[in-house]
Amino acid sequence: MMAAFMALVLLPAGMQAQNATDLTRKLDQLKAYPDVVLVNAKIYKIDTGMTQAQALAVKNGRILAMGTNDEIRFLAGPSTEVIDAKGRSVLPGLIDSHTHPHLWAVEHWLGGEGDFSAKKYNDPQLQIHYAKGNDHATILRELERIVRERAQTMGPGKWIWVNLFGGKDLPENRKVSYGLFPAPGPAGGGAAGAPLTRQFLDTLAPNNPLMVMVGEAIGPAANNTKAKDEMMKYLGTEMVGLQARTSVTYEILFRNRLEDAADFIKREILSCLSPQGITTFGNHYYGSPNIMKMYNLLDQKKEFPVRWAWYMGGHYGKVGSNDDPQIAAYLATLGDFKKIGGDYIWNAGMGNEGWEWGPQGKGGIGTCTGAKPLPNANPRDMYMPCEQMMSNVEQYGGYQYVKAALQSGLRIGYLHHYSDGTFDALFKVIEDEIAAGRITLDQVRALRISTEHNPMIRPDQMAKIGKYNIMPGFNGYQVQGDIKGGAFLKNYGEQYMTWMAPMKGVMTAGGHPVFNTDAHLYKVPPESKDMDYPEQWDGNIWGFLEFFVTRKMPNDGITYARNEAMDRPSLMKAATIWGAEQVLNENNIGSLEVGKLADFVVIDKDFFTIPEDQIHTIKTMLTAVGGKTVYKATNY
Question: What's the domain count of the chain?
């Protein structure tokens, strides 16, 4: 290139013009120019020196050059796309290290958007109906009416799906609807003598598969016999509630319709991830083989608008689950396949959300605490004392699963941590393996074991988190409300406030905490909402981020451990480069540097200088994955 340029400048002016035109045409035909240049920007690279640039150039999905506007404009050719940031701030694409778009899509497009999917995919079964009311009698009457009308409209053999919703929001719904189910869900519920038995549902829909759930991802549910039989036929087991949402949708309703399923999930990503600035997400993979198939189809067609770090699951079913008597042999047979994949889909290790499951264990280890309950604590929300759990921890399938994975040298991640005692169990399995000589400290640190949710961590646990290079993920909202961290505070007292989502404490101990949402980032009707996070955060990732700077919850006005507030550069690292470390891909994503994938987001305000209580007002203006624009605001 330089030799051609020097030869050109030594020619007479007329010949220079002709040869310059020829050179430009040749370079264009050789596709030597950048595909995209971004100019007039305030680019925060989030590199080691936290440096900035005005512009960048993209070639083949990666950053070719960074510099001033003049330097980068000089590189552009006739076919180069020019994106003018108009002086706005630019960040690396955000990494949501824990979210479930294929789960959120179900309630969103089958329920929250009414009959959209039924019409779009020409199948009336692809719609969730809602039985709503303020008391049991009203909800049951609505349930009977909906089931009767659906059965008459669709005919026998067609799936009927009804969600129950009582009151005006999820906390009220738990009080009204949960008591209608005999069996509890992950968030509780279940009542002796409750009406929604299998036998009762059989009388409502004797000729149709019928699923009844509550309007919340983790609530109780029930199936009739027809639904159970169809699940046994296609899934090999009966699924309820959370498990059924994805397995029934993708394995039964979208069965043999992979193109439709791929379009369905692409719509969710473009509506709910891309407009937030999310360019990579982390998620487990289990329960539905079609989930991998539809993502892979989008990747093969070069239509995947996001990157996916996937974890091999160990949650549902028999083989590979906490209940598998041959779990050690299963994991040893799998082999170590972390980091294997491409630019859009790669494996991040073994994930087991269900290694920890409730006060009684239920196959996983039990949630336990070193805290002392208040005299008026609700027994339903109390954790077992850790001395009780730890003395028996090796009997739990969840503990045996993590131990077997560690012995096989596998990277363990996506582990639920809903109690401080869960870290005690994780420390024990690590230390026992080190003491036995089966693994070294350096090998443990290299695994970057990751944990999820983490509403409570004791101050005395911080040093070991740093020592073992554990990477906890935080979403913030689980410190409030009526379940998880919120329920813990109500039953154990605010003297444990310093335990609540201590992101800064992890960082101070030498760890790299990671930001995530575990939420559906779209504003849907209350009955279609997935989790109990503040209404002010509906469809707004910047609200989630603001909490970790202010530590103030917008719905209750409570400040949760202000001394745990993150400085903004560190928080942005948690949402970008540290997230990339957690999903084992920091060499390609997480910062804007030459050679890395060109994932960036343009925002309308400067995250680093705007008043901290205004971070939630930031709007994502443009999102690019590999330099390709996947979202652009209408007012860009």
Answer: 3
Would residue 229 count as lying in a domain? yes
What is the model's pLDDT at position 185?
65
Residue 234 near residue 184 (C-beta atoms within 8 A): no
Q: What is the reported pLDDT for 50?
A: 96
Indicate the helix (H) or strand (E) that contains 349.
strand 345-351
Q: What is the CATH number of the domain that holds 580?
A: 3.20.20.140
Query: Is the same domain home to 354 and 242?
Result: no
- Indicate if 330 and 233 belong to the same structural domain: no
Distance set, CA 479 to CA 312, 486, 501 (Å)? 28, 5, 7
pLDDT for residue 26: 66
The SS3 of residue 373 is coil
pLDDT of residue 330: 81
- Tokens 């928080």, residue located: 571
What DSSP string runs through 480-544?
SSSSTHHHHHHHH-GGGGGGBS-HHHHHHTT---EE---S--S---GGG--S---GGGTT-HHHH
The whole-angstrom separation of Cα 154 and Cα 217 is: 26
**Is 205 inside a domain boundary?**
yes
Q: Please, which residues bridge with residue 449 across strands?
A: none
Rg (CA), the chain: 26
* Domain co-membership, 215 together with 145: yes
Identify the CA nearest to 415 among candidates 379, 370, 468.
Answer: 468
pLDDT at 7: 44
Does a structural domain hold residue 81? no
Looking at residue 215, its pLDDT comes to 82
The pTM for the full model equals: 0.94
Looking at residue 383, what DSSP letter applies? Answer: P
Does residue 230 sit in the same domain as residue 357? no
Determine the structural domain holding residue 224 and report its residue range. Answer: 122-253
Residue 26 to residue 60: CA distance in whole angstroms: 18
> Residue ranges of the chain with pLDDT lower than 50?
1-11, 15-16, 360-362
Same domain, yes or no: 314 and 229: no
Question: What is the reported pLDDT for 2?
Answer: 40
Question: Distance between CA 457 and CA 175 in Å, rounded?
Answer: 29
414 SS3 class: coil
Same domain, 316 and 177: no
To 10 degrees, the CA torsion angle through 102, 103, 105, 108? 180
Last residue of a domain, one of 253, 269, 298: 253
Which residues are CB-contacts of 316 (< 8 A; sequence separation ≥ 6)? 239, 243, 247, 286, 287, 354
Measure the CA–CA gap between 94 and 281, rounded to whole angstroms: 9
Burial profile 116-131: b = 16 or more Cβ within 10 angstroms, e = fewer: bbbeebebbbbbbbbb
How many angstroms separate the Cα of 28 from the Cα of each of 9, 20, 82? 20, 12, 15
Read off the tokens for 468.
Answer: 């073992």
73 within a domain of the structure (yes/no): no
Residues 454 and 589 in one domain: yes
Quick one: 247 and 369 in the same domain?
no
Helices (H), 519-613: 541-550, 568-574, 577-582
pLDDT in the model for residue 6: 38
Element (H, E) at 624: strand 620-625
Q: Which of 81, 184, 181 is nearest to 136 (CA)?
A: 181
